[in-house]
Amino acid sequence: MSLPKNAANYKRYWDEERETMTQKQRDKVILERIRHQLNYVYHKIPFYRSHYDRNGFKPEDVKHLEDFTTKVPIIEKKMLLADQRENPPFGSYLGVPIEDVVRINGSAGTTTGIPTYYGISRRDWDRIGEIEAMCQWAAGIRPCDVVQITYPFSLWLGGWGVLAGLDRIGSANFPLGLSESERHLSLMHQLKSTVLWSTPSYAIRLVEVAKEMGFDLRNSPVRMLIVAGEPGGRNPGTRKLIEDSWDACVHDSGSTSEMCPFQTNIECEEHAGTHLYTDEVYTEIVDVRNSNEPVLMGKRGAVVYTHLYRESQPMIRMWAGDESYMVDDPCRCGRTYPRLPDGLMGRIDDMLVIRGANVYPSAIEDVLRKTKGIGVEFRIIVEKKGALDEISVLAEYDPVAFPGLTEPSKKSALDNLAGEASKAMKVSLGVRVPVSIVDTGSLERSTLKAKRVIDKRRLPKTN
C-alpha cells in the first residue's frame, strides 16, 4: 500500500492550497515566475545573455505562456559542459557570488562521461528541501517511516536531494548509499525499513541477493519502493516484477539532476502517473525535431524543464533528452498538477532505428519481464551486418522456473524459452529480435544505473 496504516493521523497534503489550485490560477503564477526568471538570467547571468542575443531573443518577447515555448531557445547539457570548460568550475551561469554558495554537487556524468558541477546557494538549498518534501509526501512518505537510501552519497546530487526532503518530513532515514547488497538487506531487517529508494535495476538486484541469503523480500518490512535514475518505474513488466518480488508498491520518480529539486516528477498514492509540479519546475512536451513547437496533451514528445525559483545556476528551457507525454485530467488524489501517465519513457538518444523501425530498450525490457522463465539480467546487442543494422538479446534464465534441469533437457527447455521470447518481441515491437538464453549470473550486475545496451556500431575498431 502507498500510505502507512496510521495515515489518518497526518494531513493529506503538504501544501493543500498550492497543490489543489486551479489550472488558471497556476498558469498565472507560472507566467509571472517565467517573466521574472527571464529578466533575471538575461541581466545577471552572462551565459544566458550571450545565448539569447545570439538567437535574437529578449525577455520582453514573452507576454503569454505560449510565447515561452515558441520563442525561447533551449539549452542543452553539452552547452553547460562547454561553458564550464571555458569558465571553470561552475560556468558563466552561476548566478550568485561564490561566497553565497553553500553546497557543491555534480551530475553523475553517466550520459556524457563528464560530470556537471553545481554551486547551490543557501536559499536554493532550503527551497530544494521544501519541494522535495512536498513531492515525497505526495508519494505517501510520513514521519513514521524508516527510509533506506541506496543512492551513492558523493559529488552526485541524487541522494542529497532525497535526504533534504526526508529531513523536512521528519522520517527516520539512513543514507547507506552504495554498499554491499548483503549489508543493505541485513540493515533493512534490523532497522525495519518501510521505504526503499533506489534505481529499478538495483531493486531487482536485491531480489537476487536476498534469495542467495535465504531472505524472501515478500516478508520484508518494506511497504513502498521509490525508483528513479533510469526508466523502468512505469514499465509494466519491470514494475510487476518488483512489486511481486517485494510485495510492496512501486512509485516512479525523477527527472535529471540539473533540475534539482528533481523529484518534481513523482507518483502520488493513486499511481496514475508522475505528477509534474509545474509551478516549481515548469515542464513542457515539445516536438522532438523542433524544441519551439509544443505538442498536444496526450501526444509523445521531448521533455523540457525550467526552474521557476532557482537563483544559482537556474536551468531555463533545459532539453533533458527524455521522451514522454502529458495529460491534465483530474487525479483522484485531488492534486491538480498535470501528469506523465507512463513516466519518462526513455532517452531520445537511446532510441534504436533497426531496419526502419524505432525500438526503445525499455520496450524490449518490458517484453522480457513479461516472459515467464526469463531472469533479471539481459543485454541488447546492436551491430551492423553488411548494409543492415541488426539487434539481438542475451537474457539470463530464471533457475526457479526450471528446477532440476539436466542436459539435454536443459538445452531443449532454454531453446523453447528463447523462441517464446523472440516471438513475443516480434508481436510487441514489430521487428525481429533474436533472443539467446545464457546462464544465470553470467551477466555483470550494477548497483546504480544498469548499462544494458551494447552498440557495437559505436565501438572503436580494432586491428
Features:
single chain; 463 residues; alpha/beta; Rossmann fold; GMP Synthetase, Chain A, domain 3; 2 domains; five-stranded parallel sheet; five-stranded antiparallel sheet; 12 helices; 32% helix; 22% strand; globular
How does this structure look, described?
This protein is an alpha/beta fold and 463 residues long. The chain folds into two domains: 7-23 and 119-345, ANL, N-terminal domain (Rossmann fold); 351-455, 2-Layer Sandwich (GMP Synthetase, Chain A, domain 3). It has twelve helices and 21 strands. It has helices at 16-19, 23-44, 46-54, 65-71, 77-86, 122-139, 158-169, 181-191, 200-213, 236-246, 361-370, 409-429, and strands spanning 101-106, 117-121, 146-149, 172-174, 195-198, 224-227, 249-252, 265-267, 274-276, 281-287, 290-294, 301-307, 318-324, 339-340, 346-347, 352-354, 357-359, 374-385, 388-397, 435-438, 453-455. Strands 4-3-5-6-7 form a five-stranded parallel beta sheet, with helices on both faces. Strands 11-10-12-13-15 form a five-stranded antiparallel beta sheet. Helix 2 crosses helix 3 (46-54) and helix 11 crosses helix 12. The model has no long low-confidence stretch (mean pLDDT 90).
